[in-house]
Give the backbone structure.
Amino acid sequence: MTDLLLRPAHELAGLLATREIRAGELVRALLDRIESLDPRVRAYLTVDGDGALEQAREADRRLAGGEGPGPLCGVPVAIKDNICTAGLRTTCGSRILEHWVPPYDATVVARLRQAGAVIIGKTNLDEFAMGSSTENSAFGPSRNPWDLERVPGGSSGGSAAAVAAGLAPLALGSDTGGSVRQPAAFCGIVGLKPTYGRVSRYGLVAFASSLDQIGPMTGTVADCALLLEAIAGFDPRDSTSVDVAAGGFRAALDGRVKGLRVGLPRSYFAEDFGDEVSRAVLGASRLLAGMGVEVEVTDLPHTPYALDAYYIIAPAEASSNLARYDGIRYGHRAEEPQGLADLYGRTRARGFGPEVKRRIMLGTYALSSGYYEAYYLKAQQVRTLVKGDFDAAWRKFDVLLTPTSPVTAFRLGERTEDPLAMYLADVCTIPVNLAGLPAISVPAGFDAAGLPIGLQVIGRPFDEATVLKVAHAFERATGYHLRRPPLALAAAARAGGAGSAPAGGGPAGRGPGTGEGGR
Amino acid sequence: MKPAETPARTDYEAVIGLEVHVELRTESKMFCSCSARFGADPNSQVCPVCLGLPGSLPVINRRAVEFGIRAGLALHCEIAPETRFDRKNYFYPDLPKGYQISQYQHPLGRGGGLQVPVDGRVLRVGIRRLHLEEDTGKSIHGGVPGLVTTDPRYSLVDFNRSGVPLMEIVSEPDLRTPAEAVAYLRELRTVLLYTGISDVRMEEGSMRVDVNVSVRPRGQAELGALVEIKNLNSFRSVERALAFDIDRQVELIAGGEPVPRETRHYDEERQITFSSRGKEEAHDYRYFPDPDLVAVTISRDWVAEVARNLPELPDARRRRYAEGFGLPAADVEVLVASPALAAFFDATVAGYPNPRTVANWVLGDLMRLLNAEGLDPAESPLPPEHLASLLKLLDQGTISGRQAKEVLEESFRTGKAPAEVVRARDMVQITDPGQLAPVVDRVVAEHPEVVEQIRGGKQQAMGFLVGQVMKRTRGQANPQVVNRLLREKILN
């Protein structure tokens, strides 16, 4: 038997349900692992050890009692620290909320508790989810478990690193421009951004309200479907959540991909598909073609403008959403203020980091009288065109395949001096948020440096089922998800887990059969 | 303050528009389920949404939208088939999100109007727009005794009001004098009172008025510089502030000085307006559509249903009373101004179809009793049916007018039906001449000098003798019968 903490969550749920393991021992083992490994990975901002053990005891009671323990009963989940947890501090990676303890649970957290999950702690992120590396966290960056000198991606880098390192079987992230998918790709795990409106945003601290969506970050596609089922669905507290049937995601993982039509949008790839990432995705498409999927190259002509539109709309909304952090009611407040303007000025100058300030300035400018039409309104028009591209694509295709990120994990500090280079990290994921579509990142091999590459599968609105189906078929055919960072395997070995490596794991090379993703 | 007849004054014309904020009387707040009730302990009616806590989201109160439609229809506005909410961004401690959810681009109602009675004529005042928004919290500055701190360096905020539904009604600049402005406010207040959507109490802040006023030489088409006046707490303040500021602007213009475009505040005690220059002028609210809310579709059916349930409005009621019932203008105005009083009146007329008599009783004795107890007509312990039956007893001659007043008082006090009071107090009128004749005989015998005066032609003296008979019968005698008996006895 492999190390418990490296096993998929759906297996753990099964072992808990059949009482082969106890939630208490699982949570204790996980807390030990976090204690030994997280000082190097730094995935967590807050670990709720006592709370998790108490929840585990309750889960064991529910499991022993047998009356509707819930599909995740006893399974630990890590929560990105911009999602409210009652009684557990929620910092958003910002000084301004360093000591803020929400009095309420986000709807997704309430649903997880309902499903029996154990909230283990809160994970690191770029401040207010603004960034692609977690380097914008006020509390220091998280590390990529595959290479501690590299970033885990962002903004949900803490959640991605935790799952990859075996520090959480399941995690929640939030995705405004790629913040679930890009770190999932960098860390070699699965990350899904659901359709806008699929998952309630109530209790997600807003960055850009029209783009934000909470999504599952997991080791496998099956776990992703499991976690999505737990959190998805209409919420009367979120006016933008949509009242459509949400469920049956696990049932969609049936491998029946034959006859599906898949598009490869040219503008998401490097020139001539010449780089490692493009080749890996192309390889993935060939593998799927071998499974009876029809693959065709296509065009989404407005994609090149998406990034620009995003960097108007997201900061504009952020500038308004972040106005509430004024030092009046909660959070950091400047000492000895000399009047109201001074209180506001110094509170926000000290409370926010440089990237957050940059975006507040950008957004404030874009919404200002005289510029609104030229920037905000124009950006919304571009957004409509970007969405129109996808609408047209859905007439021909069931899903689109692209790289999740044009590059693999970069080194810490490599891009911090150049905000634009950092913004480009999200070029493949941003159009999906603008159009409100579901998209998953699933491991698609490794580059020459041994760093994970992510394949993005984009689907029709509310068609997470097909997205998951394709991702699952690909995962099963390749087995990349079975490879874990050496540091996680070593920790498991040290912990004396009965086995060392997960079954089927092994050196790179079990590629998609085309040889292109591998080394 | 200068007299309005200053020569300079008549050469100029003021152009006035009003922005009226009205708190809606919904059970819950605009975007959360907290109670919207006024007067609870500070910060006892709050939740993550109306406190603007991180992660919270607003949900539109459908009832508030319905109230908005109701008001819009009553003000003859065009109701938008689709309405949206925008964010108005600014910083203030009583604004917990750093923005107010309001309506900017797509207000609920546009293009309405109100017929305003002013000095015997009717002035049509256009309504430019009507929209919904959320109220802010309430700032309390300085050391107020009884609160958590009395340290004057602290300001306190009560968020009970935060998120209470507000409706803003913006008039066209169709008003020319302070009196017209007040007449418009009165009529607007009455219409809103009729629709039942608000208490419209200026003293509790459920109705708030900002005025926009500019002055131009008479005959000039172009408008002068706009001055906004805030902090007006009563109709009287509106009138005085306008009068003051119009004079101020006239003097500036007449003296060849420009009127600065600015916001001014009214100082109630000194009865002047003063400039509140500074930040407010520089405001750029950076309006944009609130991405947390979706557009509200207002179907024709919904509008029609609200219209069906709209009560009779002041204008129609005024016509019915004046033209249908022939009531005097003064009575019409008093009745129409209070929907509860008018409803009492109508209900009484339904049981006793003589509107002029009913109006006399309602506006006379009943009002006196209500005022003495400080009661609203809707709270009258005497229901309209009782007043109607009292008036019938009077008509039938069962009781006298004087008895009727006594019965009214007792019915009002005890809630008993008039017929019951009459029975209990053995108050039935004596009309039998056989019963009254001995009393008449005695009174005539006791006052020979008065009898002589009457015989000498002094008819007025008869009243004294009637009074004596009434006194001896404790008011139960029918005065007409007594009069006839006395006349027969003395003059035959």
User: Anything to note?
Assistant: The longest strand of chain B covers residues 121-134. Chain B has three domains: 7-304, 312-424, 433-491. Chain B touches chain A at residues 48, 51-60, 87, 89, 91, 93, 96-99, 157, 284, 286-288, 291-294 (CB under 8 Å). Chain B is about 40% helix and 20% strand.
